[in-house]
Amino acid sequence: MPPNPPRVSASIALPKPALQQVFDNLRAAGFSLVGPTVRDRTIVLDEIACLDDLPVGWIDEQAPGRYRLKKTREPQYFAYNVGPHSWKQFLHPASLRLFSAEKSNGGWVFRPPEEPQPRYAFVGVRACDIAAIAIQDRVLLGGEFRDPHYARRRENVFVLAVNCARVNPTCFCASMKTGPRATAGFDLALTELPEVFVMEVGSDAGSEALRDTPWEAATAFDRGRADRAMRDVERQFERQLKTDDLPKLIYDNLEHPRWDEVATRCLSCANCTLACPTCFCTTVVDTSDLRRTKGERIRLADSCFNRDFSHVFGGNIRPSIRSRYRQWLSHKLASWIDQFGTSGCVGCGRCITWCPVGIEITEEVNALRAKAAK
Amino acid sequence: MPEQTHWLGAFLAHLSPRVQEKLLSLGETFHYSEGQTIFHEGDPSLYLYIVKSGQVAIDVHVPSKGRRSIMTAGPGDLFSWSALVEPRIETASARAVEETEALGIKGGALMDLCREDPGLGFEVYHELAEVISARLIATRLQLLDVLS
Amino acid sequence: MLPRPAVIQAIRPEAAGIATYTLAFVDPADRDAYHFLPGQFNMLYLPGVGEVAISLSSDPGEPRVLGHTVRYAGDVTRAISRLKVGDVLGVRGPYGSHWPLEEAAGKNLIIVAGGIGLPPLRPVILSILSQRDAFGRVLLLYGARTPADLLYTREFGRWREAGIEVNVSVDTADENWRGKVAVVPQLFYFVRMEHKNTLVLTCGPEIMMRFVIYEALARRIPKNAIYISMERNMKCAVGFCGHCQYGPNFICKQGPVFNFAAIEPFFGKEDF
Prior knowledge:
heterotrimer, C: 272 residues, Rossmann fold, seven-stranded mixed sheet
């Protein structure tokens, strides 16, 4: 085994149990490992320490409004797609203290919170989620203002990406050109084969994580098998979204009857926005002690499906479910493009799986095309 | 369009010269002093008025609230269109806010003229429809109380 | 961004439920560093209560003291109504886009305001006063619900003397009112103006602005010569919380002042 870690952009093969050593290297380097694990019959993202914490042998069966796990006999570590969690729960947490204020000398003194800076290693990031992180980077770091809380969490994140081994009927990353293969934005990316992980080294940090592990240069045979596996995956997509007429299709159909139709099904429950890896909306709550001498400002995740989201003096700009569903979809697939230069959707399919009534974003967009409003 | 004093305003100015002349020939000028009541709500509506100078307030009396102005008419503006619409009864009161001169056109005579001269009749009622339409839109905004 | 402490230097009641708060930053460095353009807004913060977006209504040429005309409407503004001169609150800003004074140079201006829509336009009027010759005819069309709701009436004389044609109306009045009774869009019928080389700046309830735009377009003023100020739920003011979105625009960044031609596809769309 070569003692030095592999160079960046090398393609290597790692015996699967040795992934544990990669975990150990990362922890020794000060990273907190978070990755997929089974809880409550769902694959969620949480702290992990060892390979056994991963959903070994589990696959997910996803459909509109449906999520089930099934145990298989093959000991695959990463044979599922994405669950309800996405990496935004670590980078853009649902609850965050922004600052505190204290009365002093007749005035107020404002203080930012002192928080320990977490260094995350994200284990098992799918290509769609890499794209989602990049989209949130653009929203929260790429504009006139930078979100300092996101920036603090985002720097030094280690990304161990996984190329999906299969496709669920809810996935459409290929249409959104975000997957299924991870091509950038990772420190390490692996394709799982029966005995080895074929890994691409994406950065120095990725290289370091492989130090002293039993890696070998990937043989042509290994690379061939990995490529074939990925091409098999690419052929499995059932779901598609045509994007070349976006955003115009949506802007031209803001009064389409389809919005009325989907409003009869949508519960405005906000699940889709919670599960969506790019949704970023938040609200703030101010709290104080009884004597009004100390105050705090807390940022909370919010959703455009919440009625109060569009509250102004005198009432609500979007009082109907129809208007709120239209806001969500038109933002995700149309105005996002004008705001940030890319679509807001990565094709992960979470909104389809986690919608309690099984509304499918791809079907809704197609319906706007099928009988376009006169 | 002949050069006329600016009080011709929207109503008269949009009529053809022939019709304008006919209307002006039917008109008589009334003078009102500041605060003078021009007519009360419920009075028979005898004249269609066009303000020549000054300002007229259109009031509605609301029990327990008193007199509320819902509109003011300035030079060129038309008021008391009820003179041309059955049952020809004033639907509000009119009061001169300041010293005012107004051209009054007898409603009955004008209606007869409209019947005899359909071309003139069309023009008059067409312009009247425009005035009432603009009033209606303004009234909707008042009703919605958007500035509250 | 953290709010900076500012002290209330003066409180002037303007109408029922409306008062102007004049603020000055406590730290002289903040006072020196702060500048704003007409149409922009600050976030005023009361710890433990919350923040509210309030347009600046004072003279941009005197940015060391900042005027905010506040209508008492929700939790935060009602808490502000209980403050006194000398109290301190948090201020961050200025945010948002501004009225196009540079583009207006040499042109005629029709400023149309309804109710609480006048405060965000007052900085425009004050800027014009300080360089009156830079502009052509300047008309103000302003209306409130009743005479008691009219704002800044003390200043109309000074504005008229400086060559601004001030036209005022109320929606309804009693017999003591000697002015016009009309809704704001109707004020267009009382004035004559050139449609060429004229900009319209308007602020007020959205439905009022809709009718103002109809009147302006009916008088052949081009769509891109009309500017409006939009309002949406404002929380972070820096384009992150997503609340103030209006189509592809964030009211806190691309707005609140918009060129009408730019947002025409969305303007007036029901529940948008």
